[in-house]
Amino acid sequence: MWKGDNASHWAIRSWARRLLKDKKGTCETCRLKPAFDLASKSGEHKRDLTDWFYLCRTCHMNYDGRMDNIRKWGKKLQEKNLKKRPTIVQLKKRLWELCKQIVRARDMGICQACGAKGLVGVNAQTSHLIPSSICGGLLRYDVERNLYLCCYNCNINLGGNLAELYRNVLIKSGQMFVDNLYMDKNKSIQLDRIFLENKIELYKKLLK
Ligand SMILES: [Zn+2]
Ligand SMILES: [Zn+2]
Prior knowledge:
This protein is mainly alpha-helical. 50% of the residues lie in helices and 8% in strands.
């Protein structure tokens, strides 16, 4: 174990350094690197020349335990960072919040199914054209194609009022847009950390 340096250690090391300066050369452990560190074999800094040998910095730190401490510290830091990472559930929640913000900004308070205006608060709902219960992961957070602002009545009471919503999207965006959307209906993708984090970054940029 590394005992740290104090004044008497320092004095004894200087004494040993003076007497052993001719031995200074290549590291006595790895025999590769030049050695500048005079290390105490016992860790007790004895006033005894056989207790001292020359090591390179790496071997010295390995020998006296400092390297172990650094590794342990690094591991602790890594564990701490891992704990700080948001869970998949939290990422999905964050992504959904961004979807809602984008939809609200884009559809400007107008129900995309029935055309009701001035939607705010609980009356401003974010609705899937292809419902999330039947679409694969790809369309669940596809704000550009599958998410629309709907009033409470359309979304909750009329189950999305999908016939009207579909018709309006078709009029606004065209047949090809709708065909492409329906082609992706069953595409399932892994809603993993990488997908969610990338999508979050992308949508954050959209909101700027
Ligand atoms: Zn060495
Ligand atoms: Zn409506």
